[in-house]
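Audit log entry. Action: structure prediction of a protein-small molecule complex. Ligand: NAP. The ligand was supplied as SMILES and no pocket hint was given, so placement is left entirely to the predictor. Protonation state taken as written. Sequence taken verbatim from the request; no trimming, no tag removal. Recorded inputs:
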Amino acid sequence: MATAAVHTAPEAPHATTRTVLVAGSSGFLGHHLLRHLRRRGDRVRRLVRREPRGPEEVRWDPAGGSLEPTALEGVDVVVNLGGASLGRLPWTPAYKEEILCSRVDGARVLAESAALAVTRHGRRVRFLQASGTDFYGDRGEQVLTEASGPGAGFLAEVCQQWEAATTPAADAGADVVLLRTSPALAPSGGAIAPLTTLIRLGLGGPIAGGRHWFPWITLADHVRAQLHLMDSALAGPVNLTAPGAARQGELVDALASAMHRPAVVHAPRWALALAGRDFADFLASSRRVEPRALLDDGFTFSHPDLAAAAPWVADRRREARR
Ligand SMILES: NC(=O)c1ccc[n+]([C@@H]2O[C@H](COP(=O)([O-])OP(=O)(O)OC[C@H]3O[C@@H](n4cnc5c(N)ncnc54)[C@H](OP(=O)(O)O)[C@@H]3O)[C@@H](O)[C@H]2O)c1
């Protein structure tokens, strides 16, 4: 497997200032992306699902299919990170419907607007659309690149429909990048914060035996990869995952060791299934994902493997400096 150099330099102020429209900007990934966009001098426009509170905010209603017609005026890059939280349990049938529709509806509205910006106004628009490595389903030992086909299961199906909703933009000639994102590791917050919190409390351990491949990326690299993709010519699916693939047990051991905690509390699959079978699949599916497109595009990871990532995740003092 390819390895990448450790790169820790903060992003430099940008030569070309871009206008970037972000949906889902109040969330874990969006919040951090905004900070870094501002830091490198880009102009930020936020889509909000409530009354706008300032000139930076534009109202949209993804469920109702509406977006201010002027929302994409002057916009170079659209980033869609919106969708009902996967962290809210249980995933009842009604909530699963919300997980799906909140993603597909928002992606479709933005894709249609990006298509209009290209066809009606002749603008060049890059559209970065969130998706997940859940796209690949449960694939055992198979090495998965962007060329691999989709898998089965609820979240795999969500990702396929989510990505398909961007078709109007791609058909119109916008550069659509599908951010197939792994669970992002951070000192706090994010989709797998409950796992890191348990490890910090000495209550972590392997899930469902811990032998399955568990893709991951640090929040720092996720932000850097998005900034890279805004400037690159790459389009299509891109795996946002660290090159140092790990089994779930290895991930827990590395984090526990960096936090000076034991990792002995096993969580069997049947216990996860108490929160719903689809949620158990989310944590126990095996996905050995490679970031082939990013590496081929010259992206270097700050935290390419667990040896680099675990101390960064363990150090909560970093939160103030992120
Ligand atoms: N974090 C990860 O490790 C990870 C991994 C793989 C994929 N992803 C995907 O990347 C995206 C961003 O992740 P995240 O961790 O930042 O998620 P998050 O913290 O749950 O934030 C998602 C944002 O989406 C908006 N939102 C919430 N409910 C919504 C609804 N019903 N309809 C439309 N928008 C809604 C909210 O922003 P506003 O209130 O500003 O609209 C919310 O802050 C998600 O779609 C997630 O599935 C994340």
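Audit: result stored. The longest strand covers residues 126-132. Residues 24-30, 48-49, 62, 81-86, 98, 102-103, 106, 130, 132, 181, 183-184, 190-191 surround NAP (CB under 6 Å).
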